[in-house]
Amino acid sequence: MDKLDKSIKGYYLDKRLSADSIDRILDKGHQVAQDSVSEKSSANKRRVNRLLNVSILKRFAARQWWASAVAACLLMVVLVAQSYYFQRSVSEMVLAEIAMNHNKHLDVEFPYNDYEVLRVAMNRLDFSLIPPARLPKQFVLVGGRYCSIQGKLAAQLKVKNNNTGSVSTLYVTALTDNLKKIDSERLVYDNVTIKLWQDESHFYGLATDA
Amino acid sequence: MTDRDLLLAGFRYAYSLANRHHDAEDLVQEAWVRISALHGSVPNKSLLFTVIRNIFIDQYRRKNLVIIESLEGVAEPAGLDVELEFTMDAEVIDRALNQLRPEEREAIFLNVVEGYTAKEIATLTDKSRNTILSLLHRGKQKLVQLFSQESSNDQNLA
């Protein structure tokens, strides 16, 4: 069998690729190897970039979430503060107006001690002038004159406390959206004790010397 | 072993499977390119042979050309210690090898040309050692018979 094996071996060893074929295959191998390396490198870069982008996006999203939360909180604080300030400022302006008018001690223009008569007399008012339900009974009407509260026409009524004999000023005007925001309260402003309240359609302010 | 030597070894192995120059060249080129793309270079002969073999099997599967011949019940060759009294030129060997199945040519090539043992061939081809021994025996027996036949034909013609 030595001869058979030698013959077979010789036969196969004679099988050769041409030099061109060898060069072509080797070149192709080098080329795909380089392409593969650069592709792997690009793929790695893409992967890294993707991961970085995801990471950046996540961080950005996290930051954005925090920023949104902080912004929302700030906005809420601003709105609450603004609302509070606005409310306080309206309230304070009303108080200042009432105190100033009260301190002027102006005489009444319509000296009627009956609400029905006074309402007819003060016909420019755009609200009905009726005895306020929450005004204590000891306060009796003396008369009235026109004034304004927050730019709206109002009635400035003089009422006398029958128990003490002191004269107070009752301010009445139609209830507006701004005035609705003023809480019922009693406080002293510019040496005047002022009690504020409202009913369904009227805003009231009772000013008495403190 | 240089790349050129490795490439030639791969080509010869591919030739043992395909038994055609052009097909063998295609096989070795595809295997070489695939390995280069994966590893950057062709590291060793074993990997090259394995990839060539896999590509060859895939191609045969696609063409439905796999010939499965059971080794069971095949009589063991009577003996291979026959002295060949005739000359074997490349053309005769080519014709004879063409009559063998690819597995037989492969086993003979790996054993005779590459010097692999039956066990090494079994490992490379994922077959049992006994199967490889049978393939070697049967392949060589067929070759002896074919060569004898060729020789007697030549004598008759003379």
Explain what this protein looks like in three dimensions.
- The complex is a heterodimer of chains A (210) and B (158).
- Chain A has 210 residues and is of the alpha+beta class.
- Chain A is built from four helices and six strands, in the order αααβββαβββ.
- In chain A, a hairpin with a 5-residue loop joins β2 (152-161) and β3.
- The termini of chain A are far apart.
- The model of chain A has no long low-confidence stretch (mean pLDDT 84).
- With 158 residues, chain B is mostly helical.
- Helix content of chain B is 70%, strand content 0%.
- In chain B, α1 packs antiparallel against α5 (102-113), α5 packs across α7 and α6 crosses α7 (129-157).
- Mean pLDDT of chain B is 82; it is low at 66-82.
- The A-B interface holds A 1, 3-5, 7-9, 11-17, 21-22, 24-26, 28-30, 32-33, 35-37 and B 3-4, 7-8, 11-12, 15-16, 21, 24-25, 28-29, 32-33, 35-42, 80-84, 88, 90, 93-94, 97, 108-109, 112-113, 140, 143-144, 147.
List keywords for this structure.
heterodimer, A: 210 residues, alpha+beta, six-stranded antiparallel sheet, 6 strands, B: 158 residues, mainly alpha, 70% helix, 0% strand, globular
The end-to-end span of chain A amounts to: 137 Å
H/E series of chain B: HHHHHHH
How much of the sequence lies in strands of chain B comes to: under 5%
Quote the beta fraction of chain A.
Answer: 15-25%
Strand order of the largest sheet of chain A: 1-2-3-6-5-4
Inertia-based shape of chain B? globular
Q: How many strands appear in the DSSP assignment of chain A?
A: 6
Largest sheet of chain A: 6 strands, antiparallel
- Which chains share the greatest interface? A-B, 27 and 41 residues
Helix content of chain B: over 70%
Major sheet description of chain B: none
Oligomer: heterodimer
Mean of residue pLDDT values of chain A: 84
Q: Which residue ranges of chain A are poorly predicted, with pLDDT under 50 across at least 5 consecutive positions? A: none
The percent range for helix content of chain A is 40-55%
Unreliable spans of chain B are: 66-82
Distance between the termini of chain B: 46 Å
SSE topology string of chain A: HHHEEEHEEE
Report mean pLDDT of chain B, rounded to a whole number: 82
Structural class by sheet pairing and helices of chain B: mainly alpha
**Can you tell me the overall shape of chain A?**
rod-shaped
